[in-house]
Amino acid sequence: MIFGKKKTVAMQEEIPEEEPEFILFQGAINGDNPNLKANARLVQAGLVRSKQMVTDALNRRAEMICLESKGDAAVVRFYIDGIPYSGGRLAKPQALAITQMMKLLAGLNVQQRRKPQRGGIKADLSGVPYELSVQSTPLADGVERLVIRADNLKTKSNRPDDIGFSQDMKKKIRAHSAERSGAFLVCGTPNSGTTTTTLGVLRSVDSYQYSIFTLANMGSQDLTLFTQFEVEPDESFEDSVTRMLRREADVLFLNPINSLQDVQRIFSQQHRLAMITEFRCKDAAHGIIQLCKWLKNPKIVADGLKLIVSQKLIRKLCKNCRQAFRPHPQLMKKMGIPPEVKTMYRAGRPPANPDELEDYVPCAKCGETGFLGRIGIFEMLEMTDGMKEVLTTQPSVQAIRAQAKKEGMQSFQKEGVRLVAEGITSLEELQRTFKTR
C-alpha cells in the first residue's frame, strides 16, 4: 500500500502541468509598433493581464470585449454571438493598466485620455490569426471605456453565400449593377454587420465582366479583383471619376458616408458610375427618408438610388445539439412557413425530467448556449417605378414599407421564415431579434 502511494506521487511529479497558451500580439495594424522598453512599467502591469483577458475571451468564442468602470471596480463583458456574458471584475488600477496596454499595442497615444481613439492589433492564438480592433472612449474623471472586437481571419468571409445572401438577392444586385450607374447603399446600426454586408454587395457584382475601382480603405481585404485608385493632390471628386472612366471603370467602392458632402458627391456623379457604400441608419426605409432629408429633394433620391440594403445579425442553431420538433399546422400557416416543411428546430436544452439529467452531456461545441455563430438576415428595397412614385408624392417610412410589401420585395420577415424553414435558426431567436422593432 505504501509502495503504491509512493508510485502515484512519483508519476504525478513526472507529468508537469501544461502551461496555458496565451495570445501572441504581433504588432499594430497601422505599423506604429510600440517601444516596450520605453514603457517597461506599463508592460509589467498590463501585458500579462491583457493576454489573459483576450485569451479567455477568444477561447469562449467572444467576438467583442468591453471593459468599463462600474463604481469602485471595473466590469469585463464578453459578447458571444451578440449576447453579453460576464468576463469577471477587476480592480480599477488593473483595468487602467489593461486599457493603456491595449492602446499601446494598437499604436495609439497612451497619454491621450480625453479623445476617442481607434486602432488595431495583429495577433495569433494557437496558430489562428486574428485582427483585434481596439477602441477607447473617454468617460468621466479621466476613465476610459475599452472595446476590443476580434476578427478570426481563418473563418472570416465576405463572400455573399457565407454571410447569408439568397440567390435572388445576388441576382438582383448583379442585374442592377450591370447598368453601371446609380447608388447602391447599405445601412444599419452599430455592430449589426453593416460593413460586412457592404462588402457582400460589392462581391455580388460580376468582377470578371465589370471593372471595379475603390477609393475606400480596404484594410486586409484581397484586392485581386479590384483596382485601388489614388487621388491626386487637390483633385475634385468629379475629376477623380473622370480619370477612372478613362481607365474604363464601371463600379466605384467608397468609404462610409460621414457627412452631407459625401452624399452630395455620390448623387452628383451616380449617373456616371455605379457607386457602393454604407451609412448609419436604423433600416432601409428609414435610410431612404434620411437621404431625402439630406438632399432636400426626394426626386434626386428616386432618380439616383438603385437599391438599399439593411441587415440584422441572427444566431445560428448549433447543429450538434439542436432539437427537432414537428410544428403545429396553424403556427406554420401563421408564420408563412411552406407546408412541405415537416420538421423545425429549436436550441438544445437540458432535459426537463430530473431523472434524465444524470445522463445529460452538455454540448462542448457551443458551450451549452444552443447557438453557434451568426448569420445576416437582410431586407432589400429597390427603386422601382412604384417606389419612385411613393417617394415623390408621399415619402414616409410607412408608405415605403407598404409599397415594398405590395411589390414583394425582400423583407426581414421573408428571410427569417426562410432561415427557420431551412433549420438555420429558430422561431424563438427570430422573436428575440425583432422584439424591439
If you had to describe this structure to a student in words, what would you say it looks like?
- The chain is α/β, with parallel strands linked by helices.
- It has two domains: 20-152, Beta-Lactamase, CATH 3.30.450.90; 160-316 and 346-350 and 365-434, Rossmann fold, CATH 3.40.50.
- 36% of the residues lie in helices and 25% in strands.
- It is built from 15 helices and 16 strands.
- The strands form three sheets. It has a seven-stranded antiparallel beta sheet with strand order 1-5-6-7-2-3-4, with helices on one face. A seven-stranded mixed beta sheet has the order 10-9-11-12-8-13-16, with helices on both faces. The chain has a two-stranded antiparallel sheet with strand order 14-15.
- A hairpin with a 2-residue loop joins β3 and β4 (83-91).
- The radius of gyration is 26 Å and the shape is globular.
